[in-house]
Amino acid sequence: MDQDIDRVLVHERRIRDRVAELGARISRDYEGKDVTVVALLKGGVVFLSDLIRSISVPMHLDFAWASSYGDGTTSSGNVALRVMPDTSLRGRHVLLVDDILDTGRTLARVSAELRDRFGAAEVKTCVLLDKAARREVDVRADYVGFEVENVFVVGYGLDFADRYRNLPYIGVLKPHLYAN
Ligand code: IMP
Ligand code: MG
Q: Does residue 123 lie within any of the structural domains?
């Protein structure tokens, strides 16, 4: 796997430190609020599992799966909700967690659904990476780990064709691997 990586963008140690910082901030902000963390499958789960262990306030956990990506590296633009949260979110403070904010379509769509269809009182968002250069819809994340340049990245949950999710760092894939 490592041989498919051009360069490491965010090392394991930096991720760990930053995720702990985010967890501490979230814990302060949600003091006394009883938050429900909703993580997006599949890419958000590695970040999620580290993040929630840095959250010290009581919380519930649920999942949703919105997919717009096939095996390529660009969004189809069409976001489909394939798995819904399983618990009631009515009136709840939801923190939506995903791996990366790219065009913004996924977070915009899922946030709206959690509010309008599932009745969440509030939806805030937390992403490990923010690729602002690619934004197509006006959405900002409330908590961001790292701003990244406009390159396709893998690792720490992020995939290319469902591979590389288990790399412990964020790396840039060698372009010839997705060039065709
Ligand atoms: P958006 O809807 O365009 O913001 O896309 C968000 C989703 O696209 C994320 O949840 C990722 O699954 C995927 N994605 C966007 N950029 C990358 C990348 O650089 N590497 C891997 N997946 C990405
Ligand atoms: Mg993905």
A: yes
Paired with 13 in beta bridges are: none
Q: Which residues surround ligand 2, an ion (CB under 5 A)?
A: 43
Q: What is the pTM of this model?
A: 0.94
Instruction: Kindly list the protein residues whose Cβ atom lies closer than 6 A to any atom of ligand 1.
Output: 43, 68-69, 75, 98-106, 152-154, 158-159
Q: Residue 107 CA: which ligand is closest? A: 1
Asked if the model's pLDDT at residue 82 lies above 90, the reply is no
| Residue 55: inside a domain | yes
- Say if 70 falls within a structural domain: yes
Which two structure tokens, joined as six digits, stand for 5?
Answer: 């990586």
Ligand of minimum distance to the alpha carbon of 156: 1
Q: Which of 42, 85, 91, 82 has the alpha carbon at shortest distance from 62?
A: 85
- Is 71's pLDDT higher than 80? no
Q: Which of 6, 102, 138, 162 is catalytic?
A: 102
